[in-house]
């Protein structure tokens, strides 16, 4: 298989408060088919390695304190967001911030590959959320940690059977940096998860808060074999690739993905808890996710774009109802304005 290499890419994590972040040196080899790109000279037939480079830098700069193994795994997951990449090898060196000796480093290498099918019983979310690191027999070849156990059966994955597909409503937004590109990348990433397909993409809206700050917002509908917890983890992984670290509530972010509804029904805490697995580096606790989303009924930045792609949309729950009836009662309805019908195609709007 053909390959593209990125070598000696440097980025520094933000670190925990009061401490200096670590500097990481990343090299990656991406394996993919380059024949079509070579014949047509078409960028769409290959990966945008500039975008991948920025994705890696943004990811690392958003990290606090992590094991080098975890950083390497997250970088590999971020690269696999580009659907053309079938396999990736990542090598990460962490420099000691307290030492001027470049030899004083920790070095880790991992390999990951995209699952071509679900015969192994692995959750399709592993492609985005990094769960394959924990649940398949294709373990990383971390140089500091060798796998000594014989191959064992993978843990049961939370994958719906083919006849039990879910339909999710996802709010997409952001308010700093190149938000449009981040939102487009999110659409491509989610559509590329095996067993999933984007069904609807709303027009792009602007939303103005009380302080006058503007955000961009849209809504997607997704058909998927993922269970709600795996959908949540997939969204967090895509956010992480754009520098939005899990558990960190930032006032400004280039990409925010919120799971609004799955199957137009209420999900109990017991149902969601039954889907949780450990270990899982981007996991969810029962308090992280409520379905339907607890505030969606009063947010025009969700209701307006949702109504555009589903005129008969319905939100269940104690404050639920037809979206067409909920929208006029949203307190911020006048603060959400249409910006573009064709934003997903790129170019100016």
UniProtKB/TrEMBL annotation:
Keywords: ATP-binding, Folate biosynthesis, Kinase, Lyase, Nucleotide-binding, Transferase. SUPFAM superfamilies: 6-hydroxymethyl-7,8-dihydropterin pyrophosphokinase, HPPK, Tetrahydrobiopterin biosynthesis enzymes-like. Coiled coil: none annotated. GO terms for cellular component: cytoplasm. InterPro entries: Dihydroneopterin_aldolase (IPR006156), FolB_dom (IPR006157), GTP-CH-I_C/QueF (IPR043133), Hppk (IPR000550), Hppk_sf (IPR035907). GO terms for molecular function: 2-amino-4-hydroxy-6-hydroxymethyldihydropteridine diphosphokinase activity; ATP binding; dihydroneopterin aldolase activity; kinase activity. Residues 4-114 form the Dihydroneopterin aldolase/epimerase domain. Its EC number is 2.7.6.3, 4.1.2.25. This is 7,8-dihydroneopterin aldolase.
